[in-house]
Task: structure prediction
Amino acid sequence: MAAPPRIIDPRRVPVAGVDSHLPAVPAERLAPAALRARFAAGDAFEPEHPGDGRPFEGRTPAAAAVLVPLVQREAGLTVLLTRRTEHLRDHAGQISFPGGRSEPEDDGPAATALREAHEEVGLAAEHVEIVGALPAYTTVTHFVVTPVIALVRPPFELRLDPFEVAEAFEVPMAHLMNPAHHRRHRFEFEGGHRHFLSMPWQAARPDGAPREYFIWGATAAMLRNLYRFLAR
Result:
């Protein structure tokens, strides 16, 4: 069976449902101490979304890692995300975590995630506390991605790589850990269908005009897996 066609504009794919019937992660579980304890417990966890589906043909699996940076703001944790530049071969223009392909010199997924975060957005390791990781997620482009969860201590200064990163922004973790903001999409194509999640976030531009960040695909799926891990 061939892989499904690429989704060019996910905003145009119909919404099949919204998961507002599921409970939000309680605020006390989103505190840094609670997150440290949850990951330290080492419970076995089967992710709801292990991957995008059948990868594109002709691609060799490649190990990768992303950093899921949880910034410790006074009002609560936020998730640091990036918007990729439009010219990249894979996932151009999409919202993503800092991360990328593992290199031979990397000492495991955490090292990959820290190196990539420093290269992409200039986040220094001295501000980062790794608290755990989620099971690997396989993308349709055949990257086997380990999400590395980390607490980030302000103040810090970002320096974006203009080749890969168009902008960086933060979304309140409480927003992303509330399934009332999780939308399920169904994409029909000849011979089959594909599902994906989206978690749109609206923020103001510097001029005050609203701007929607359309978080979807692998990034939304990994956030949903984090939700499931913290909600149980």
